[in-house]
Amino acid sequence: MADIKYYDVILKPVVTEKSMELMGEKKYTFLVHTEATKSQIKEAVEKMFAGAKVAKVNTMNNEGKKRRVRGTMQFGKTAKTKKAVVQLTEDSADIEIFEGL
């Protein structure tokens, strides 16, 4: 396993209709490093966003899709990804990157 620092764990936020609805319940969705564990994700969110206290983390692994290469019968795969849905506690501060959306 690679030595992953907390600032390498969260890659970018996921902004979709479903993730926007979940923000009302203090659930935030992020794309994370594929080898990051739930405890590493929790630590990264609490260190990167001031006042955020994580109650629980749910993760899902997405395998890469099979794609044709250059119009021939050769196939390749896209990169695999990992998403994390982070539930904050009731007394926690909101994450500010989602405030203006």
UniProtKB/TrEMBL annotation:
Domain of life where this protein originates: Bacteria
GO MF term set: rRNA binding; structural constituent of ribosome
GO process annotations (BP): translation
UniProt keyword Glycoprotein, yes or no: no
InterPro entries per the UniProt record, alphabetical: Nucleotide-bd_a/b_plait_sf, Ribosomal_uL23-like, Ribosomal_uL23/eL15/eS24_sf
One GO cellular component term noted in the UniProt record for this chain: ribonucleoprotein complex
Keyword field: Ribonucleoprotein, Ribosomal protein, RNA-binding, rRNA-binding
Gene3D superfamilies reported in the protein's UniProt record: 3.30.70.330
Pfam family, one: Ribosomal_L23
Subunit description: Part of the 50S ribosomal subunit. Contacts protein L29, and trigger factor when it is bound to the ribosome.
Known function: One of the early assembly proteins it binds 23S rRNA. One of the proteins that surrounds the polypeptide exit tunnel on the outside of the ribosome. Forms the main docking site for trigger factor binding to the ribosome.
Family: Belongs to the universal ribosomal protein uL23 family.
Protein known as: Large ribosomal subunit protein uL23
Species per Swiss-Prot/TrEMBL record: Lachnoclostridium phocaeense
